[in-house]
Fold Ribonuclease Z.
Amino acid sequence: MENFDLHILGCGSALPTTRHNPTSQALHLRGKIYLIDCGEGAQLSIRRAQLQFSKIHSIYISHLHGDHCFGLPGLLSTMALLGRLAALPIYGPWGIKDYVREIEQRFLTDCPFTIEVRECDCRTQSLVHEDASVKVYSIPLSHRIPTIGYLFEEKCAERHLDKPSADFYKVPIAYYQHLLAGKDYITDQGEVISNAYLTKMGRPPRRYAFCSDTKYYPPIIELVRGVDLLYHETTFGDDLLHRAEATAHSTARQAATIAREAGVKKLLIGHYSSRYESSDALLQEAREEFPNTDAAFEGLCINL
């Protein structure tokens, strides 16, 4: 089974600290890197994680607050300096086109690759990207400006050939495609061999949901139900619930409530306010609601 690795490049919030970088993550699947948000310091974190810039397949920006996108000009400039030629898709909310075009005009006048910017509807869930490895869906969030999260769903074969059984019944190789499409096999003697004897069901796809800056927003629950891993921002703890409400952010307990109600397998918290010297108190609050919770930190790698 191929690796499905999430690398935490940054998990802090807007104000800089010596403890955390602003938000950025790299999802590494089948040799491709899907970069999620790009706060300042993302490039150094990519180097420290021993990931390759050339493997970045596409970029997903949640919203246009600086701690989620100020690293983008530098990253794009580096990719140009390294001679990238492949087109680079960048997804984001309304306004992302104008932002990227400004970067191109100011810093990338001789860019050797095409940047394909695609704005997503922030009001509804939709399929925003699909390739041979993954499907990516937008997740509407509720913040002070248009904001979206992303759901990454691995693409798996629905059926696998049971080769010993196919050989036993002398199924021609040319018929394998029909078996994988769910059809039975009829021998030369007219005997019907059930597809269930000749194939095996594929494993369920692994799914990762990234919920960036958002207030407590119950509509998220159905959109992330049952995912293998949910990242949900936890800017504040119970002690600063009033600040969470005023700034349209979530507390650790609220994030854990979303995870519990959605029946996710694991919760990862992050986007800590600079007020907190440690994430320990936030982690404790989250675990009171949803025990299978971990706290993000730079350099963390989770294999789904």
In short: The domain at 4-157+203-303 is CATH 3.60.15.10 (Metallo-beta-lactamase; Chain A). The longest strand covers residues 4-10.
